[in-house]
């Protein structure tokens, strides 16, 4: 019981810090984002399939809206669903990293949309690859669905192992199955 009380207090403090705009500094430095963005200049961004936009809404930890019109699903990750442990924390962290900011969007070329019509993309903000940052902080799991994201899947799995080994985020108190229960097949009537 004391451990849950401590975790509740920590979640409250993290939420207060995020609300006040101070943000949480992640445990890792995002070198991947720096390498990719460091090679880009305004002329080469379009050639690389990278565009920019302002994030106007956060749906949950892995879904955002840009310019009030385009829904984007963060590629290569999955965050806890509503009602699961760490849903609010992952959503709050995504909000702190992205809301109201200009982001760079690298859309998946091979399959630009998921089955719900959302754009599948890597999102960069303040020289941070947000998709990777959430995995590194233990607020998302690596989630690769081919054909997109094959070039980053092994990095994301490594970040997940590091977060789990260091007991960051949900890895501190929950098992994988508690946060991401197996999906039940839909019953046919």
Overall geometry: globular
Question: Looking across the biggest beta sheet, what order are the strands in?
Answer: 1-2-3-6-5
Radius of gyration: 17 Å
- Overall pLDDT confidence: 81
Distance between the termini: 43 Å
Question: Can you walk me through this structure?
Answer:
The chain is α+β, with helices and mostly antiparallel strands and 189 residues long. It has one domain: OB fold (Dihydrolipoamide Acetyltransferase, E2P) (Beta Barrel), CATH 2.40.50. It contains seven helices and eight strands; from the N terminus they run H-H-H-E-E-E-E-H-E-E-E-H-E-H-H. The chain has helices at 2-19, 31-38, 42-47, 87-98, 130-136, 150-165, 176-179, and strands spanning 50-60, 63-66, 70-74, 77-78, 102-107, 119-125, 128-129, 141-142. The strands form two sheets. Strands 1-2-3-6-5 form a five-stranded mixed β-barrel. A two-stranded antiparallel sheet has the order 4-8. Strand 1 (50-60) and strand 2 form a beta hairpin. Helix 1 (2-19) packs parallel to helix 4 (87-98). The chain is globular and about 35 Å long. It starts with a helix and ends in a 10-residue tail after the last helix.
Give structural attributes.
189 residues; alpha+beta; OB fold (Dihydrolipoamide Acetyltransferase, E2P); two-stranded antiparallel sheet
SSE inventory with pairings:
Elements: H1 2-19, H2 31-38, H3 42-47, E1 50-60, E2 63-66, E3 70-74, E4 77-78, H4 87-98, E5 102-107, E6 119-125, E7 128-129, H5 130-136, E8 141-142, H6 150-165, H7 176-179
Parallel strand pairs: 3-6
Antiparallel strand pairs: 1-2, 1-5, 2-3, 4-8, 5-6, 6-7
Helix pairs in contact: 1-4
